[in-house]
Specification:
The protein has about 230 residues and is mainly α. The protein contains eleven helices and no strands. Helix 2 packs across helix 5, helix 4 packs antiparallel against helix 7 and helix 8 packs antiparallel against helix 10.
Amino acid sequence: MHPTVKAARVAGALYLLLVVTAPLRLMYIPSALFVRGNATATANNIAAHETLFRLGIVADLLTGTIVIFVVLALYRLLKGVDQNHAVLMVILGGLTVAPIYFVNTLNDAAALLLVRGADFLSAFDKPQRDALAMLFLRLHHHGVVANEIFWGLWLFPLAVLVYRSGFLPRFLGVWLIINGFAYLAISFTGLLLPQYENMVSNIAFPALLGEMAVMLWLVIKGADARQANSRTA
């Protein structure tokens, strides 16, 4: 197998791992356990499904770790296109995104401690603990909203690299740029006009499939070996 094709498929396989880990805490657990505006019901659901909630914490830690390997694999694949853009991609996509994932798990850990009602929390009655747990869950969400800024920004240097590479289709680069703007729109809406966050997310959803298209292309098609040889020459 051509080295560039192999590097592309490795990057795509690592990228696809995010599809397994990221949605668990980001989408499934909130939809399954959280009751909007009802702290008590949310706390009771977390207590009743503690293992699932803990899996969400582990999923966030795994996602932050996988992100680092994804950007390094993409750097290996694309550094020959433009070194500066490749370094910027690593900084925005790995060195900024991963720490927020790791720190954000502390909010979930705090919520879980409050829900379990440890002995040292006996000074708080249950409604107070439930309210505090909901506070930490909201802080986790705000951490995600802040991280979406970097989810969008790192796609711009990646898009330029894909567009200029020659061994990957240019339409993927264009789609990644649109994907990046979509993440920024969702993030700034969540920060400035949170009442419209869900609406903007629904509208922007098709644009967010750009990353999925890149993942599948890298895994299935890899890269154009002839164009890669031409660039190397």
